[in-house]
Specification:
Elements: H1 6-12, H2 38-46, H3 60-73, E1 77-81, H4 84-95, E2 101-105, H5 110-119, E3 126-130, H6 135-141, E4 146-152, H7 164-173, E5 177-181, H8 186-189, E6 199-203, E7 217-221, H9 223-237, H10 243-254, H11 256-275, E8 280-284, H12 294-300, E9 307-312, H13 316-325, E10 330-331, E11 341-343, H14 355-360, E12 367-371, H15 377-388
Parallel strand pairs: 2-3, 2-4, 4-5, 5-6, 10-11
Antiparallel strand pairs: 1-7, 6-7, 8-9, 9-12, 11-12
Helix pairs in contact: 1-3, 1-10, 3-10, 4-9, 13-15
Length: 392
């Protein structure tokens, strides 16, 4: 279906109708599959014959989600996992070995940084953190044993935009794999594989689902990088996406295009409004001309995304006061939902990060992150104004 536009792929691709002739994709909530003979069972387990074996690593519903997302991202293969973090874990466990080195942006999700520092280090993998936006630091951090470069763009929560073309060249010049977390833009706004990335990672929990209903992740790239290394790890270690969750994500993909357009429209309007509020010190949104990487974002992304962060004038008490004054917004660390959410990154998503590292990444105590949902933008602004107006 490569001939179709991405909006059509999101609705139609990746699924083969069963003999029941259903119009909506079926769910296959089964742990195992029956074979016509012992010989067929042996052929399936050996890989000689393609087909379902066991739902830990082969399931028709999960496969439909994988196929659809791979086509939308422009990749050859996709592995669905139990969560976004298990997608990251499966990627690095599948591709790396003891003694390898990774260069990572310092502007990544707090739990990802904990995974690198606390757990991958146990297996002899070293990680060097560099600036998301200074390509020269990436080149300087390369070592003879560097195997992978990792980043998320835009970053969480400051929406820093990495130069994918420049960092991709660094990766290729040094025979490294460039891995990009694309969960904030989704393939609707940005396709990193077309801009030089080798692997794209998603937390499907976020915008791909779009309604906060299920946990899941995905890894997309070439068959060479995905099938044996990542799928092999997933098959053995078992961080598997459930068929029911895969079906939810399939349904989420169907509306992804129209949702992302609406998220972006509201986020831009909110960011513009926050910029003019006297209680706001600074706003971070790639769609604003005031954003440090505005021109780069306009080149790499088709819109600014649904995430807005801002610093209030004051400290943690003032930030918490704004959050606690809301009546409609959801105080939760999840994002990508149709319900607007608000959180304090320093004490939630990045609370397990070393305080000094947190400050180096720009995550200050007066920073608030908002994932802009699909409610009335006027109601969102009014809800935030309850607390912001008290700080004037």
């Amino acid at each position: 279906m490569q001939e179709f536009d991405i909006e059509t792929l999101a609705v139609r691709a990746g699924y083969d109708q069963t003999g029941e002739q259903e119009n909506s994709e079926a769910i296959f909530p089964t742990s195992s599959f029956r074979y016509h003979s012992a010989a067929q069972a042996a052929a399936r387990f050996s890989g000689e014959e393609k087909g379902n074996v066991y739902s830990r690593f082969t399931n028709p519903t999960v496969r439909a989600f994988e196929n659809r997302l791979a086509l939308m991202e422009g990749g050859e293969a996709c592995v669905a996992t139990a969560s976004g973090m298990s997608a990251i874990l499966s990627t690095f466990m599948g591709l790396l070995q003891s003694g390898d080195h990774v260069v990572s942006s310092q502007s990544i999700f707090g739990t990802t940084k904990v995974l690198f520092n606390k757990y991958l280090s146990k297996f002899g993998v070293e990680v060097t953190f560099v600036s998301q936006t200074q390509s020269s630091e990436w080149a300087e951090a390369i070592q003879p044993n560097t195997k992978a470069l990792f980043l998320e763009t835009p970053s969480n929560p400051l929406t820093e935009v990495a130069d994918l073309e420049a960092i991709s060249k660094i990766a290729k010049d040094n025979d490294c794999v460039l891995i990009v977390d694309n969960c904030f833009c989704t393939p609707i706004l940005q396709r990193p594989l077309e801009q030089g990335a080798d692997i794209v990672i998603h937390s499907a929990t976020k915008f791909l689902d779009g309604q906060g209903r299920a946990i899941g992740g995905a890894v997309i790239g070439s068959s060479e990088l995905i099938e044996e290394p990542v799928r092999g790890f997933m098959r053995t270690a078992g961080p598997t996406m459930s068929p029911f969750n895969a079906w939810i994500f399939l349904k989420g993909l169907e509306t992804l295009s129209v949702r992302m357009e609406a998220h972006c429209q509201r986020a831009f309007e909110l960011a513009s409004w926050l910029t003019d509020h006297p209680a706001v010190e600074q706003v971070f949104y790639p769609g604003l001309e005031s954003h440090p990487q505005y021109e780069l974002a306009a080149k790499q992304q088709s819109a600014g995304g649904g995430l807005v962060s801002f610093r209030v004038k004051g400290f943690q008490d003032q930030a918490w006061s704004v959050i606690d004054s809301t009546k409609m917004l959801s105080i939760t660390a999840n994002l990508g939902d149709v319900k607007t959410s608000i959180t304090h990154p320093a004490t939630t998503t990045h609370s397990r990060v070393d305080p000094q590292e947190r400050l180096q990444a720009g995550i200050t105590d007066n920073l608030i992150r908002i994932s802009v949902g699909l409610e009335s933008i006027e109601d969102i602004k009014k809800d935030l104004a309850r607390g912001l107006d008290r700080l004037i």
